[in-house]
Amino acid sequence: MEEKPKKRLHIKLGFLVLAILLVYVLFKVNIQKVVNSPQFNENTSYIEKEAKILFNKYLQKPALYIWNNLFTDLLHASIKNFNQSDIDKVIKPDKINNYFGNTSEETVNQLSRPVDEN
Q1: Phi, psi dihedrals of residue 3, rounded to the nearest 5°
Q2: The pTM is what?
Q3: What are the counts of helices (DSSP H) followed by strands (DSSP E) for the chain?
């Protein structure tokens, strides 16, 4: 089965923004004057207010549910499963010495010591 190429919205959006800026420059629009104009400020304030209303009315409950019930549980589970041997695999004294230069054995021990779970 042939795989379809993934759509890359962020890349397309970036090109769109650059194209709009290029058009503004070609037509000699003073972008600073436009951004600092009262009309632009009123428009952005209106959009911000409406976005907050949209979030509070429709998206806040699902977002908080996902954060409180799904994401935090996954985060806590991964933290509990992360043990000292995993830390030792990531933080090795020779890697610390190479990164920070000559460090004392005491500093290496402090950096590789497990964090208290209080």
Answers
A1: -85, 135
A2: 0.43
A3: 8, 0
Using CA atoms, how far residue 91 sits from 55, 84, 96, 98, 107, in Å, is 41, 10, 7, 11, 12
* Token pair belonging to 96: 């610390």
Between CA 15 and CA 5 the distance in angstroms is: 18
How far from 59 is each of 11, 54, 64, 70, CA to CA, in Å? 26, 7, 9, 16
SS3 (DSSP) at 4: coil
**Which amino acid is present at 102?**
N
* pLDDT digits 0-9 by tens, 19-69: 988 998 898 888 888 889 999 999 999 999 999 999 999 999 988 888 888
SS3 90: helix
